[in-house]
Amino acid sequence: MAWFFSKSSDEGIVLTSRIRLARNIDGVPFPHILDKDSAKKVVEDVTSAILDSNSAISKDFDVINLKDITLNERMSLVEKHLISKDLINRSDISAVMINKQKNVSIMINEEDHIRLQVIYPGFKLKEAYELASKIDDLIEERITYSYDTRLGYLTSCPTNVGTGLRASVMLHLPALTITKNINNIINTINQVGLTIRGLYGEGSNALGNVYQISNQITLGLSEEEIINNLIAVTNKIVEKEKKAREMLLEKQSVELEDELYRALGILKYARSISTQESLELISKVRMGVEMGIIKDVNVDKLNELFVNVQPATLQLLEKRDLSPKDRDIVRARLIREKLN
Amino acid sequence: MAWFFSKSSDEGIVLTSRIRLARNIDGVPFPHILDKDSAKKVVEDVTSAILDSNSAISKDFDVINLKDITLNERMSLVEKHLISKDLINRSDISAVMINKQKNVSIMINEEDHIRLQVIYPGFKLKEAYELASKIDDLIEERITYSYDTRLGYLTSCPTNVGTGLRASVMLHLPALTITKNINNIINTINQVGLTIRGLYGEGSNALGNVYQISNQITLGLSEEEIINNLIAVTNKIVEKEKKAREMLLEKQSVELEDELYRALGILKYARSISTQESLELISKVRMGVEMGIIKDVNVDKLNELFVNVQPATLQLLEKRDLSPKDRDIVRARLIREKLN
Which parts of the sequence belong to the Phosphagen kinase C-terminal domain (chains A, B) (predicted)? Predict the structure, then answer.
């Protein structure tokens, strides 16, 4: 969980930078029409492309066959953004390689044969892309990608054809949400070839005021153009969030201070709390700390909680399955222990 | 404020016991038609009846002419239940004698010439009545009361004619309120010659789940009958509150625990809070402490806050007039300081 637990730059507004490359093996049908034996061979070929390479990187990776782990363990990987829900839906044939630092994951037999992801804390899109390219090259030493000289990389879904690149940043935008300015941003973002989503991708809500922004277009632009475009837009949004925070501080400091401190009070004292409420409150307290309103709360602990309060991760930490009601109780206890 | 700050019996359900005697001076018109000079003489006669007596009690009393104190000081006396709002409405002619222990107050030129009140913490109606009678006798040594052998004591309002006695208890009934059983109690209480009101008497809401129960009838029953009737009914309500608390504990302990602890969290962390919200939260925390759910909060501090958070008392403590917005801020600070 290095990506989430580390301190990030930009006053914590850019939580993470993520690069995802979609690749397929030449001559092999896409996963959704692949028979089990061929799927197994895809897993073998991709894993050995990494593990058998001479690169130092290869020693960092573990291979996890999805069918070998519990549903909770799978869901916890989703909560940590290391795999997608789609990979779980194909658990009989899918696998993932995750490195020790937990910032690189290679999903195998998701929508495409290979979904290579690098995730960094803070605003580090270029660094993430460099590492992704390096691993991409490593795989390509042993595997021939499905590639068209005119279109670029061929993918299962046409929206990924071309670079196969999805670059995204995860932003914490509580002040823009409180001031409702986020609605303007959502409207304009689509006009510049980007898309904005909640914490868990397409169709998900902005739990805890966390938003993902990513490129919509993979075709017709170079990797550099895609990344530079995202960097420019992100810089603008970060500026807007900073301005919104300044405005909040100036305009209604007591109301804001009260709202943020009450969030802290509830987190420290609740005996039962849902995932959604806890993410919302953690988000508020995090903003309070970053704005200098709330003292003596460690932002790293908040970041850690942001992941650990989620249902599957919570149950893994607790080492047992819990009913929703018991999860709320255990979640409240975990938060109290961490913050008190 | 001895009556409020002291620990009370019955697990804190009976906050206070109060006896009030209405008396008038024979041959003197009732206060609402009294000219200023005659009103002044009433104040002199009543105060000297106490101050010039040979009783040890006399040395305990201070005389306060309402016109000599600020509006805030007057309102704070109301908040402490030492005077009525009616006494403030006649500030040009009214006075009050208050003893050092602050459990006896003698209002002069309220609705009647004399309103003698004794208030005790806990469930001590008989003791309160004994002390009230003793002071009543002391005044009668020098003043001839307006008395009719058939009707009893004559009063300005016919509802007080007879004994002139109003006996009341102040009850903290959070569990009956939460379970909504309080509605049944309110309906039945009127059928047994008693009346139930909020924290500040007639027409007031049950702020902080505090209710006053008092006799409606002053005529046709002896003082002993009135008091015994109130004691019997109070015992029944206390039983019902205890049962409601047990039921809450059994049925939904996590939800209840969560609600009570969140109340504590908000009190400890809010930066702005209204009188009403703070009374509601203090009430919940108080019940939590009494039920053994919340540890390490001192119930005496909660009782103290219950009075001190109120607007006028708050401003007296702060030694300055405050806008409503500033009161909310100062109130939140006072609560934090007391509970942290």
Answer: 13-244
